[in-house]
Amino acid sequence: MKRRFLTSVLAALLLTATLGGCGGGPGGLRPAVALDLKTSTPKATKPLDSITWNLPYEPQGIDPIKSFNYAENTVLSNLCESLLRLTPDFRIKPGLATKAANPTPKKWVYTLREGVRFWNGRPLTADDAAASLSRHLDPKLGTWWGDYFQNVDSVRATGRMQLTVTLKRPDALFNQAMATAAGAVSEKSAMERADTDYGTPKHGVMCTGPFEFARWRSGESLTITRNNDYWNRPHRPVSKSLTFRFIADETTAVNALRSGEVDGQYFYLPPAAIGQLQSSPTGKVTLGRSLTYWALLDATKDGPYAMRKVRQALSYALDRDALGAAVFQGTAPAQRALAGPATWGYEKDTFRKAYDQLPSGKADVKKARKLLKEAGPAARKRITIAVQGSSSVHELTGNLVKATGKKLGLDIDIRVVPVEQYGNLYQDPKARRGIDAFLSTWYGNVPDPLDAYTVFLSGGNNNFSGYDGVDADIKKARATSDRAERARIVTRIQSRVAHDVTWMPLNNLPVILYQSDRITGAVPSFPYLYYPWATGLGGR
Hints:
alpha+beta; ten-stranded mixed beta sheet; four-stranded antiparallel beta sheet; 17 helices; 29% helix; 21% strand
């Protein structure tokens, strides 16, 4: 009853702001102010025998080639290391490779680190790295990182500790991607033995990271333990073990955190009870720098939502400041483009100038109605938008979108998909049947705005609607090594994507980290998905 009341009240508040066309929120609500976003938390002062951490759902698996989501990478980043490493402050440094050379535009040569061993004691070699990266080229295995390997011609061990990747064409993103799970290395023989069961509860993984896979009890928990022989001595884990729980229900998770039953959690969306966590006497919330944004993703080639003017109308009618104030409780400022300021790892002035020229995200209902009128009678047919169950943010945003559409004359139906099944929308076309668009958190993986737009490659895994408006420019930008020129091409891509609204950016999402008063040391920034964020975890 309370949840239903909260939903109706917030939806009414948001609707008032949106349809009134004002910039500020109603009833005292205010847009998110500049946030103090962190990349570190205080260091631990003592080791702990065990720490309990919650995941927003149980991982589908922890095989690196299929770990492309929050729960999966939160675990995997502490187990399997990549050729390069994305640091908490968004820099790319050596990882398992001490050197990445680019002797020709179409060749990358990686020199592997000596003295690294897998948990079973076997030494790391280039054969292991070649076998790991080659799996991305096998269509039978179905990698989730295929966009980064689209231009790869071959992966070969060209020496005991030398790996050579030959490209079909130059690619400015490939080497950067080696700092994500796309560049993760597993032991060759372990992958061969497990075959398609690699990364499952039955077989786990065999890697070189600071924590070792210990056990996975399906439906209950997953435990990793300290690798006492870890090669990188300054980053050996402080504490002995970390057990992950799988509490998907927000209310249950918040109660577990406040009671001390669970020591910590990363939230990729703020729970309805984030205020309870922020005022908790037993723990602390830290907001971290992020590459993540909240968006409505186009998933259809037919019907009214396939019409550009319909998407434009809905986008102009939505008040992102009000959304950030009410739904995100002040933690998520409006975002004008898919690639926000945190992605500007180079040519910042170029990207800032182009970003400032985009629509501000404030509601313009008059313009929205004009666009919808131009779209004609076909725009009045039903539009189905999917939202994730067990999420107040999905529910409330869905209510806002539906109410806004109704006022404009759009017939929008909200379809709730259980959290356990929502991930299928990203990988299975059958799961998207009958769905025109769906709400999503999304992120680029590296600090390069081009990375955020590779989702629109023709034939790409994430180009759900088959949009082809920027395919040629994406390929051109990826083949451009000169950063200034690449930035100019990317801003052109950004402008076209913003105009076509095939994906509708709504708000920037910081990392939301909760740690109990018993612990400290977790990495609060976005790279926790690829960086061994738990090595510093310990007692206060």
